[in-house]
Design goal:
Helix content is about 65%, strand content about 10%. By secondary structure, it is mainly alpha-helical. Bound molecules: zinc ion (ZN).
Length: about 80
């Protein structure tokens, strides 16, 4: 199992996610982001806005994802 924090995945807090694949951890981070969004958490709203800006460019989004995947792959198990 590898671990990444909400912050490392483009979020805003130090909550840790544990998963065996990048897809899994990305999904966990997304669900957590949605939950915090629904709670109206300001730090996460800001982080999500920044992600949405990034998503306007498919190229930038792809690069971001590949960077994070590499970061995940390089983590010790
Ligand atoms: Zn968070």
């Amino acid at each position: 199992m590898k671990k990444m924090t909400c912050k490392q995945l483009g979020g805003a807090c130090d909550l840790e996610f544990h998963a065996n694949s990048f897809e899994e951890i990305a999904e966990m981070s997304k669900n957590h982001g949605m939950e915090m969004f629904q709670k109206g958490d300001e730090a996460h709203l800001k982080a999500m806005n920044e992600m949405q800006e990034l998503m306007k460019s498919p190229e930038a989004m792809k690069n971001w994802f590949e960077d994070k995947r590499r970061e995940f792959d390089e983590l010790p198990d």
